[in-house]
Write a structure and sequence with these properties.
single chain; about 250 residues; alpha/beta; Collagenase (Catalytic Domain); about 35% helix; globular
Length: about 250
């Protein structure tokens, strides 16, 4: 089928907006006021949960399908001069592993050829020399980071994560926020949440103060995406049916 051939070559990008980089931004994060929980659609997730999950995991995909990794994915840090960001990446991968048990195992490798995702802490010109296909999205933009992934029929195969260190220079809270934001995108969350009151690192604009850790909502969404019942390539109707039965 024509659609299947197109899926096999589809490349997906996700990016976050550039933020003010003043050094005096508070490091702590507090959730916005919410209007109460949404209607429960199943035993576990509310209607708001389901809507935002689809915004982040389906609507951001050009074909509106679930994108996820197989059992293992290895990350490689290209720029190792930032020891504190290497530690941040290690902490993020460890936290996600603790959430997913054996449904997905994330590792960091020191061998570039063994990696699935390469992480760049650099300027955009250096990044685009390594990932030139990202140029149409990154050039003339105000994005402070990018997650660039390749997939085939919903199964993620390779990609990269970019944090613009030139724009986020000397602002560690922004850098930490971008690490969490883009690594969560790299799991297969191609879109952003737009529902007011949802407190997530993937909100469609940057919540202030910066979110420097995954929120309880983020963790639930990561677990839902890698629930074995949610399969790569699933469309919206299939996801609705599965989530409402959980």
């Amino acid at each position: 089928m024509i659609q299947r051939a197109f899926i096999g070559s589809l490349i997906i990008l996700s990016s976050c907006f550039l933020f003010s980089c003043s050094k005096d931004k508070p490091a702590a994060s507090t959730p916005p006021v919410t209007g109460g929980p949404g209607e429960v659609v199943g035993g576990t997730y509310s209607s708001d949960d389901l809507l935002v999950f689809k915004q982040m995991a389906i609507y951001g995909s050009a074909l509106r399908i679930i994108n996820k990794w197989p059992k293992k994915v290895a990350y490689y840090i290209v720029d190792t001069q930032y020891d504190y960001l290497t530690q941040e990446v290690d902490a993020v991968l460890k936290e996600i592993n603790s959430l997913l048990d054996t449904n997905l195992v994330l590792t960091r490798t020191n061998v570039r050829s063994e990696s699935n995702v390469q992480i760049f802490f650099t300027d955009r010109n250096t990044y685009l020399m390594a990932e030139p296909d990202a140029a149409p999205t990154l050039y003339n933009s105000t994005y402070g980071g990018l997650s660039y992934l390749r997939q085939q029929e919903g199964t993620l195969t390779s990609g990269s994560v970019f944090v613009d260190m030139e724009r986020a220079k000397d602002n560690i809270p922004v850098q930490r926020y971008l690490v969490h934001h883009e690594i969560m995108h790299s799991l297969g969350f191609r879109g952003h949440a737009t529902l007011t009151g949802i407190y997530t690192v993937l909100f469609y604009y940057t919540l202030m103060p910066y979110i420097l850790n995954y929120t309880p909502f983020d963790k639930r969404m990561i677990q839902l995406l890698y629930n074995p019942l949610i399969k790569e390539g699933m469309g919206e109707e299939q996801v609705d049916k599965i989530v409402k039965a959980l």
